[in-house]
Amino acid sequence: MNSEYDVIVIGGGPAGLMAAAAAGHEGVRVLLLEKGDRLGRKLIISGGGRCNVTNRKPVDQLVAEVPGNGRFMFSALSRFGPEEIIRFFEGLGIRLKEEDRGRMFPTTDRAVTVANALVQRLRNLGVAVRLQAPVGRLLTNGDGCGGVELKTGEQIHSRAVVVAVGGKSVPKTGSTGDGYAWAQAAGHTVTPLYPTEVPLVATDRWVADRVLQGLSLRDVVLHLFDPRGKRLTTQRGDIIFTHFGLSGPAALRVGTYVSPAQLKQGPVPLMLTIDLLPEWTAAEAYQRTLDRAAAEPKKAVKNVLKAVLPERMVPLLLAGAGIPETTTYAHLARENWLALARLSKGFPVTVTGTLPLAEAFVTGGGVSVKEIEPATMQSKVQSGLFFAGEIMDVHAHTGGYNITLAFASGHTAGRSAAAWVRGGSA
Q1: CA–CA dist 329, 327 (Å, integer)
Q2: Are 174 and 41 in contact (CB under 8 A)?
Q3: Of the candidates 41, 69, 55, the residue with the CA atom closest to the CA atom of residue 256
Q4: Of 71, 100, 231, 314, which is least packed with CB atoms within 10 Å of its CB?
Q5: What does the pLDDT read at residue 1?
Q6: What are 354's strand-pairing partners?
Q7: What gap in Å lies between CA 87 and CA 92, rounded to an integer?
Q8: Is the pLDDT of residue 426 over 70?
Q9: Is the pTM of this model over 0.70?
């Protein structure tokens, strides 16, 4: 049967838009299918609505920020990494600016600028787009993947298909996990799904009582331990206390490690500690706070500590160290002050889990990368079938890394699909 298109791309998110643009640039006939009523929904809300288009770290450093199969992405990132992504968008007329830790944003501070530029790029390349066109299944046979069947029953034939429909996080953008069933039906393995880059749930009394709810802390260090005391990860950055536990960039990164640990060990609580004074050692925390108390001997230590530690946390720290809030320097016991110093360097939080996958920023797990060629994103199971973005078992920390993976894998999949169409090999 003659193909209506050379390449069909399923999914109008960052990976799908880039895949369609890359394939279209190669001069093949491309159709982009999106089940929603607009393209770029996830792109438009990314980066808090500003779109952190990439992170300007060197590729080896960027891969280190990809705890979920980062090495698999090395080839794609080497060909279309941060610098290539920057040049691509600047070529579309989007001016970018670099902010802290290498994060790149459009100077407009509006994600819709990026989305509109990509959509216009597709128009210029003659890429066909169909909205509100949900796919029901892939058309596969012994010769590979030859198109799709929509949920309406309509079949659309092609010589290659790129699946870029995302995972199951942020379902309001259309990422509802549709592609996993298609991949399994095509013979692929889908590894267990779990939330990553997700807020932490804690059961400590001060959480239930909402003592710290709304308190934000900047530049603290979080350590996560398993029940045996093995450290699972260390993350530094900002956090915010919530009515259920912890959120904020550093807490989200820690959340990536919670579900894998509990999948291995069962739904056991994990211990998290917060280093409130990361620039000081425990000995310095002890001596410097003690020196402050000595300099103001008539003041209650509660009031002295407010200059060093978060004010709303001081009563909890004093109670944990067994020091009455009205205590002054003259009545301090050395062992209690040592306990206070230790707590300031390791405030304990009992983590029982995370928010559910639908509340996560990124999906962990997905189509096994063992069954995908890293240099082309082509399936090892079905010729002519390619994957891009979050549907694969690849995930990164927040900070421009996940969207970089989406663009890199989308670009690789799109170009490789076009090459497959032209020559029969990607």
Answers
A1: 7
A2: yes
A3: 69
A4: 100
A5: 42
A6: 200
A7: 9
A8: no
A9: yes
